[in-house]
Amino acid sequence: MTTGLSPSVHADSVLDLEKETESLHQQPNRIHHLSASSFTFVRNTHGTFNLRHPQRVRSIPPLAIGFLDIANSGDFAANVFNHVPVPIYAIVLMAIGATVALVMSSVALRDITRSWKNIRLLREEKVCLKSMDSDKSVELEISHRDLWTEIFDRAGVDMAMGIGAFLIAVGTYMAIGGANHKVWFASNLLSGYVGNALPALYGLCNVGWSVHVWSRARKQQSAATIHLHDDLVKQLLLNRIRKTQAHAGLTAIVCLVSGALSMVTPTHWWPYPVLLVCGLAFIYSTWVYRNQIGYERSTLHGDNVLDESHLIAEIRFLHSVKTALQSGSDAWLTLQLADMSTSDLLDFVVRCDLFEGFCCALLQDSCLVNRCFHNLSTPTFMIGKHALLNLDKPEQIGEIHSFARSHIEKYALQTVSIHERFLLECLGACLLHRKGEDKDG
Q: Do the beta carbons of residue 108 and residue 44 sit within 8 Å?
């Protein structure tokens, strides 16, 4: 897997992790982890552990959402073969198209419940940040960006295209019984103008949002060029900015074209080949967002301080870890994790944003660790880094190291890549704020 960086930058990114960790510990006032180091879990009646109060914004949509644009073309047979009697082959195509659209509408319904949880968390986060006495303009910038991205790029897609797909499915099923004039009229209405109206309206709204995203990325690019002097981090940030701008441009074009042409399909067949291309482009756009732009993160609180120097150090650290994980060798040995103390190893897990999943794995599968935290009188308990450090028996320490190795080998590369994207977004917001201060000055 390549990252588009020059060989010299790659060489510079392979840092001595132990040295960098020591450097950060020498500046305790600069350490403001954006990943939580303690969690409160609840054990349900089935013995499964869940977070008591989830505080993580999971804003990466499933790839299936990318297929919603194609699902809205499920009325193809109903509009093209819109005559009586309906041919057998047309009935088969109608049934297939309607079923696909109906299934995709259920996928959209399921995803919008997840998106709504993110929106609620982000709104609570915004209220919390605004209530702080200190300057939280950078944190509010990120919260604002994530909230409106969730509304436009996920909930908006789910609602507009999901409802549209459902109406199109109903109308296409009705088209099978087109011999009845009232059924034929209702079918044309649902699978035609009514079913396609919401996607068309969403397309117009999304164009405005995409223009804003592109413009914001352009300002970040300008600020990074002027103020960012770390070559590795600058190149990583500029790569992210270019991908963000390309994604925004592609999304705007796809939504505008598919929205406009969907209103023509009730009377003409020729838009469907173009809509197929738009649908494939939307799938690719969703894939790009999932794998190169989108991120998950913990909610921002008052103790989170987004410091530019600290963010640069953390991004360099994460990039060096990612480089080691991508090398194909044993990452546990390459990163010298076996030689770390339990405290340093847990610090590594926290910095890589792996701690939540690591705690879940320990509680679910480690009998030694589970017994230390499970209290029969209450199903609720807290587990954190300091609590794990109190487990000092050799067999407990060995269990922690064993589970850490297994978790890192399975999930580290994906999680570190996602966390790196988030920190790059934080750095971009810091640079935007700095540029604004320069203008005011």
A: no
The verdict on 87 and 158 lying in the same domain is: yes
pTM of the model: 0.87
Q: If you write DSSP's letter for every residue of 141-190 in order, what string do you get?
A: HHHHHHHHHHIIIIIHHHHHHHHHHHHHHHHHHHHTTTTSHHHHHHHHHI
Alpha carbon separation from 84 to 92, 115, 136, 266, 270 (Å, rounded)? 15, 43, 64, 16, 21
Query: Where among 244, 264, 294 does a domain terminate?
Result: 294
Q: How do residues 346-390 score in pLDDT, each as one tens digit?
A: 999 999 999 988 988 888 877 776 677 665 456 777 788 888 888
Ordered DSSP codes for 22-43: HHHHT-GGG---SS-SEEEEEE
Domain around 247: 60-294
Q: Is residue 1 part of a domain?
A: no
Burial of 166 per CB tally in 10 Å (0-12, 13-18, 19+) = buried
Using an 8 Å Cβ cutoff, are 68 and 162 in contact? yes
Q: Are 64 and 105 in contact (CB under 8 A)?
A: no
Count CB atoms within 10 A of the CB of residue 96: 14
* 36 and 154 both lie in a single domain: no
Of residues 324 and 39, more confidently modeled: 324
- Could you read off the pLDDT of 103-123 as tens digits, one per residue? 999 999 999 999 999 999 999
Strand-pairing partners, residue 296, are 58
- CA–CA separation, 172 vs 93, rounded Å? 10
Q: What span, in angstroms and rounded, lies between the C-alpha atoms of 133 and 128?
A: 11
Count how many domains the chain has.
2
Cβ-contact 434, 319 below 8 angstroms? no
3-state helix, strand, coil in the chain (%, to 5): 75, 5, 20
Distance, CA of 405 to CA of 27 (rounded, Å): 28
How many Cβ atoms from other residues are within 10 Å of residue 252's Cβ? 19
Are 236 and 321 part of one and the same domain?
A: no
pLDDT of residue 6: 43
89 and 200 assigned to the same domain = yes
Provide the β-strand partners of residue 38: 384
Nearest CA to 251 among 146, 141, 156?
156
Q: In sequence order, what are the beta bridge partners of 375? A: 378
Tell me how far apart the 2 most distant CA atoms of the chain are, in Å.
81
pLDDT in tens, 269-279: 888 899 999 99
Please, are residues 191 and 168 in contact by the beta-carbon 8 Å criterion?
yes
